[in-house]
Amino acid sequence: MRRLVPATVAVVALTLPLALPAGAGARTQWVCDVGEPEPVVFVSAADAAYDGIGRANTKAGVVFGQQFGESCTVERVPD
User: Fold this and answer.
1) CA distance 21 to 70
2) Total-model pTM
3) Which of 3, 7, 52, 70 is 20 to 30 A from 14, comparing alpha carbons?
């Protein structure tokens, strides 16, 4: 019985994020122009991730531009 409660809590903690919609509240997007007719959205996240995605774009976006000729931007999607 002692192991049942922690195991149940662990299962709920692991299952809850899977039950929630992945894109709920996603308004920040990392978009790259890869030569397709439409730009490709690589990351879609909540507004709280805007600064982190912007910092990642300063490094990864430069590498994508140098290595593959892709142009990437971080955009906020209007409501």
Assistant:
1) 30
2) 0.61
3) 52
